[in-house]
Amino acid sequence: MAARILSKRGLDIKLRDLGCNLVALQNKNVVRTAASAAQATLSDFEIQHKQPLVKKTTPIPIALYGGRHAVTMLPGGGIGPELMGYVKQVFKYAGAPVDFELVDIDPKSDETNDLEYAITSIKRNGVCLKGNIETRSESTGVQSRNVAIRNELDLYVNVLHCHSYPGVPARQSNIDIIIIRQNTEGEYAMLEHESVDGVVESMKVVTQSNSERVARFAFEYARRNNRKKVTTIHKANIMKLSDGLFLETSRKIAKEYPDIEHNDMIIDNCCMQLVSNPHQFDVMIMTNLYGTIVSNVVCGLVGGAGLLSGKNYGDHYAMFEPGTRNTGTAIAGKNIANPIAMLSASIDMLDHLGHKQHSELISDALRKTICEEKIHTPDLGGTATSTEVVQRVIDHILQADIRAW
Amino acid sequence: MSIISRNVFKVLLRASPNVAARTIHTTAPNATLADLPDSRVNATLIPGDGVGPELVYAVQEVFKAAGVPVDFESYFFSEVNPTLSAPLEKVAASIAKNRVCLKGILATPDYSHTGELQTLNMKLRNELDLYANVVHVKSLPGVRSRHTNVDCVIIREQTEGEYSALEHETVKGVVECLKIVTAQKSQRIAKFAFDYATKNKRKKVTAVHKANIMKLGDGLFLRSCEAMAKLYPKIEFERMIVDNCTMQMVSNPQQFDVMVTPNLYGNIVDNLASGLVGGAGVVAGASYSADCVVFEPGARHTFSEAVGKNVANPTAMLLCSAKLLNHVNLPGYGEMIRNAVNKVLHDGKVRTKDIGGQSNTQEFTYAVIYNLQPLQKPTQ
């Protein structure tokens, strides 16, 4: 849907148009000229219904030269810029072979130029490290930037590895759950309209193709990481068709993975089980909205929003961000934001890029700081400032002195 | 002398990262950080032909004096002396393992011993897929040349085009030489150029071509560059025909920023541009694959007439080694060597013959060593 808005302007900067068939291109160009001439003539409904949800793109070679990767960095709003600064510091001392391309997006403007540039940049580099981007505008034409990026890049799955940090005060200990969430459709399809005055319909879209991709990803992930069980979270007792399709699809895929146990659970029961006995869960898959709720619940159990990192994957691109998508505007600039989430997102990124040595170096340093020395920011009940935590991590990196460039 | 200075530098350089790190907050430094274990970086070294071994020796002297924690795996690799040369597989395996290499220039004979058309240089590049050659042509302080303030980067595709080594005599007296251009490799080099420009905050990329004559071959290269340019809206893109480009280069080289070229044009433009700023002895370059980098002087000239005469200019090789150090995350040492070279050139007391002086290679090297100064803060 965001793509629909994007596609009206600056279509020519998108790579997929290079390989696209000519007819489609011309059609889009007609739409663009019409749209730029009279932006307001397209209704919200028309804006929403022009393009399919699953994008087909031509892969671009990723930016890897002489062992160094280029990665797009979107600091976003709130505490994003500070956290990115810490990541850069830590990478510098760890010698991580990554060059960041910084792209700032102005939260106040309704223009999509910055956003388009950010998306193009991710397409070029293949990988992105992202804070949470604010979207202040509330007009229907302006999309949430975060959703727009996910949809445009077709990052159809979000993976959140929820694990307890020993030494961090939390409600539950020894939690180790992987939440895999459909990231581009479901309730976030954002197809809303007012059919009669005073009656608003919001559509939840579940497609078989997307459900299948997510389920397959989940089982492959489980197999690769030696996980034993996959649980599908749904509400198919009420939404028999949409959630039913999601559940059926995951059951079908489960048959192809006989070595992994599969069961399902209704979302409301799941939330209760999570807070009472979270240890029964291993890998969980779910649709978009349930995913955001469940991941926030689990984050709360292990110690708050500042600890976990999330990974978004599509067929061609990967994006790494803090696990719970909060901007933290209230604590920005106070030097108390917890840097762990963003640092562990950057560790995930190094893992994804194949720089195992560096990711281990940084995660070891992080573990020593958080779990052994218990240097915590106020959100974990500690008294340390953000920079103190980062400084300690850097000290550990320097001490290890594995000159892994 | 060198042992003392080595240790002094080492201590200062080891301490300096902490100094910078401390600046982000004000708690007392951790005492345990002083005694760090010593870990070193491995790099492959290919001295090459001509004056290569002398220049490489200069680099090793400077590294020794500065206490640079780099160990070289040295291979004699040569096409003009095939019986003594290390096998290609062994050299390539070493570079693939170390991921960095410092290399002199290999002489390329006009005839082939074995009848093969591929030169050793080409074989090494193909073996490691070193597709992008980057030559940063920059005016140096104190080196007199025709132009000042030249600062351009020439990026050359070096695995296909005219260098495909596909030549044959179809009929007696008629030889065909195939120039291969592929969309995949053209896109790859175009993307490399634009990514390089983005990373180094450059403003403009110029594609050098001859698509008015070779409409299909160079046309494909040009179209690939144009398509890639659309993904980089913040970087200006222009195209220039190679003959015009060479003329512009000698009359007004300041107009160029990043240039992306196919193989043969790149070779010519590289050497031309090197001539503008002081010759083959002062320009550093590097060849990139996805995983490894080979640092070598920018102009491909072995200077074989000067072998053993102790007159060659080690500036290019020293700048290559500084780039190597930057690449392996030892920017402090890299900056130190670069500053020393610039200081020596700027002072102008010790100059080799090619840039109008009377000194020899050894004197220049010692002058650089004398001017090595540890940095207060690492610059990165």
UniProtKB/TrEMBL annotation, chain A:
Its main location: mitochondrion. Pfam families: Iso_dh. One of its GO terms (cellular component) is mitochondrion. The lineage of its organism: Eukaryota, Metazoa, Ecdysozoa, Arthropoda, Hexapoda. Residues 70-393 form the Isopropylmalate dehydrogenase-like domain. GO terms for biological process: isocitrate metabolic process; tricarboxylic acid cycle. It is found in: Mitochondrion. Belongs to the isocitrate and isopropylmalate dehydrogenases family. It comes from Ignelater luminosus. This is Isopropylmalate dehydrogenase-like domain-containing protein. Keywords: Mitochondrion, Transit peptide, Tricarboxylic acid cycle.
From TrEMBL, chain B:
One of its GO terms (molecular function) is oxidoreductase activity, acting on the CH-OH group of donors, NAD or NADP as acceptor. The keyword Transit peptide applies. SMART domains: Iso_dh (SM01329). InterPro entries: IsoCit/isopropylmalate_DH_CS, Isocitrate_DH_NAD, IsoPropMal-DH-like_dom. PANTHER family: DECARBOXYLATING DEHYDROGENASES-ISOCITRATE, ISOPROPYLMALATE, TARTRATE, ISOCITRATE DEHYDROGENASE [NAD] SUBUNIT BETA, MITOCHONDRIAL. Belongs to the isocitrate and isopropylmalate dehydrogenases family. This is Isocitrate dehydrogenase [NAD] subunit, mitochondrial.
